[in-house]
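In this section we walk through a basic example: taking a raw amino acid sequence and producing a predicted 3D structure, encoded as discrete structure tokens. The instruction is simple. Fold the sequence below.
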Amino acid sequence: MHSITEYQQAEAKLKLLRALFDNSSDAIEVLDPVTLRFLDINATGCRTLGYTREELLSMSIYDIDTAYSAAPQKVLAQLRESGHALFETIHRRKDGSTFPVEINVISVELDRPYLLAITRDITERKALEAAQQDVARRLQRITDFSVLLSSANEAIAQMENEADLLRTLCELATQHAHLRLAWIGQPDDEGWFQTLAAAGAALGYLSGIHISTSAELPEGQGPAGQSWRDQKPVYIFSISQNSHMLPWAQRAETFGMKAGAALPIFRGGKRWAVLVVYHGEENIFDADLQKILTDLAQDIGYGLDRLDILRKEREVNAFNEALLNTQSSGIGVVRFPERILERVNARMLKMLGASSPGELIGQQARAIYPDAATYARVSAVEQTALSEGNGTLRDVPHRRRDGEIVWMDISIQRLDGTDGAQRTLGTYVDVTERHRLMDELARQSLSDTLTGLPNRRALDAEMGKAIARSDRQERLLAVGFLDLDAFKPINDIYGHDAGDDLLKEMARRLQDAMRRMDTIARLGGDEFVLLLEGLRSMDALEQVLARLQAAITQPLHIKGEIVRIQASMGLTIYPFDDGDADLLLRHADQAMYAAKARPGREDGSWVQIYHPDIGNVSMDDEILRRDFLRALASGAV
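The resulting token sequence is shown next.
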């Protein structure tokens, strides 16, 4: 017979579980595994869905998630295999509105089988992912247009035929910037635009089209006519919504064109033609792209001016001709074999932070590069240019006079003179901003935006490396899943800003408490993953865990009040938990939930360790310690 004390303890445990159930920040649902009907649901779930508990107990999962009808078999198969399934879907509230959720389903056996579904509203996460995708798309567009500008400058610097130059520039515009159409038009004596060059998938748009410079005609109201008259760029952010585009709106829609721009091209200081581009997305031309297109139109004018200069000065020495090829790029002449800087233009001086030509001319070219490897890389392309006539390099670091590093694309040509010396001429384009944007995009893709810790993507990459190091070094690797207890009340009581500050402070504390070789990543919300590497004894693991617990339980000051936080953590130890990265994380996650279910924290039960044979155990479990030492002694790793 059970004593009264045992019944009282059991009743206390049930009350505790019910309190956790009712006060969870996530919706928790108990489902019949066959019919998927609700057997129980906590208050969070009722509030989120907008139903009363009594209403939901008469419903099934199909009543709130029509998309779920295709999922049960897959989910049930996962549950049979591992006892756990994690997936995303869409839920519908009582008022008909929908929201994205992440569902963590666990199969449990009590008096009979049940499904325990922990459902989390991931609306904010999805919005953040969408925002990050928008940023990534914007940065990619800036990169594409920057590459266009660099490629256009290369073409301008090298080509000597006007028709070929204009056609190549249009082709580069559609190729690099993904434009539907790029064309250059010039008005005839009667004011009707004639096409000088064009490229793109929507070339058919120009067939039989009539565009005028006259403001009195409907055909003159479009961007080309306006740009010609006003001698400034004109942007059409939405062709379908712009009244001036009525004569061409239907035609543009047929060819998949949503937005357009026209920019004047000046030759010899006078308006000469217009560059017109069309894109397949509305509202594409933001300030960054407008700046790049303006530079492109200017560079076309510089290129045409260069051709004019070349035609007028064929008999002038090769140096003067090449030096004037463009004013938008830096120019430097290097004499061989000494590799001395012999000439530089004003743009090159500005790019390298020099106040006068004397600071650079006569110096070894090595002085403008930050290291020997870069110098050797440029030297190799210069040798190619001397033998074959030209060569190009992208993303080359250069050292300014003040020590700052700038990045440039270089187009190098052999410069043939009459004195017998070998020379090269480099056309330098500053791409520092492009380089910075790409570095920032790479950093953002691997970092948690709130705490700065590695995110899930970075963790996935690091776990494989950590497992490989464990095998190679014959040391144990502990994978930990850490979740803060009762974090939701912090947000509810003090506000989300306070919750964010708490997460940032907790991330800093955890990072400080870990060893240099260890890794901590944030998965989202108040969930963190820890990789504890190179373990040789249980003492080493206990020391790290003690520092982590001390860091977590230190009091926090929130809006003038002292708050204490606790956490639950699950661990699994590779290789006697011999799984892949996903399986290790699942086992650590299971152990974390086991830790959450244990009452109290004084006996160290804030941590549970997954053992492949006996399940989740505490640090002081004799079987765990025996197997830990046996794995190290046998060199099982």
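Looking at the output, two observations stand out. Confidence is low (pLDDT under 50) at residues 315-326. The chain has four domains: 4-121, 129-312, 327-436, 447-634. In the next section we compare this with other chains.
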